[in-house]
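Milestone M4 deliverable, item 7.
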Amino acid sequence: MNDLVADLFDPGNSWSTRTRERFTGLSPELGELLVHLGTSDGFWNWRYKVDAAWKRRAKALLKADGADELVRYAVRELARGGSFHDMDDPEHVIRELGMIRPASPARRLAIGFLLAAGWLRRDTEGLSADLATVGRKNAQAMDTYHRVDHDIAGAAFAALGDLPGAEAMEELWALHYDVARALHPQRVLAKSVKKAAMRLGVPAHELAERTVPRHGLERDGTLTVGWFGKGVLWWNASVDAVVTLHDTGQVTVDWAEGDQVTRTTAPFRSPAGYNTPMRADSVTLVRRYAQNVGKTLAEERERLEALAGGTGTGTGTGTGTRTWRWADWVRYYRDHPITGVATRELAWEYRLPNETVYRTLHPDLHAVPAAGMPTATEVRRVPRW
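Output delivered:
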């Protein structure tokens, strides 16, 4: 057993080096758990589906004394410092593109620990926050760069979907907002969000407003696409282009070729001669993104229009009109790069804590800083009556 455990460590990996001492000299039961978790590469791939027999065995082994603590320790160490690959220099990663290296044996152990974290009996000691941090680092959803690892990110998302309690749900909401839809493990993230929401009885209207895709747009409504080292790091394309959703609701694509920039609107055709065989796939992707942005905006306009009058689900007003906590409204409405455009086209009002009268919100919705309102402030659409 000790030899099998030793085979899981990688002297070139910082997480493996930090945890090796803690993972050696374990009881036979915990050693068996460790070896079992290290076999996750037998099934965990781009499908993000856990093998049923592997899961049953893992759950049985997790009943051993000390197993809960061991899993929490492993996940906490994965969240600490850099990503699993301990690489935060995008230029270095770009230089490594195309280089084939054998997968670290510690990677499959890390994935096994992440999946097992979702089956622990209690969501305590910051486990949800640690899993979310691991997911962010490996899904390029942080302000600082970390090397992307789809399988590790997917395992963290899956674990959050399995964990009980509201803490995991809150982390999933935030991740769904920040993780780009084009990133491959976003599919398991979306599934985990729906799974957790169903378990906690989240209303359909709340699920809808918190899962509006951003399509990779930054908060200013732009998506910059470019060659290696330029544009969004999760999408290196053989074109230079910028997709923009303007405050007017119009979507444009700026196609750059050297110093020449050509702006097009729907159907976002590239300039004559731009769509060469080398660039055809990337041009198609840019056009598809621009089209999807316009489609989502149209859907959001329709959804927001239904919020005025007595068509919503009441949350404290007694009138049947939807209301939001200030922080939720800012995040999912005002500051969302797509929903925000539809939001700014409408009139809103707010009610301060301990007050009964609503006041009209300034037409420039950003005139009030996000932190400038008391936590308990309510926001709603201006009713039609």
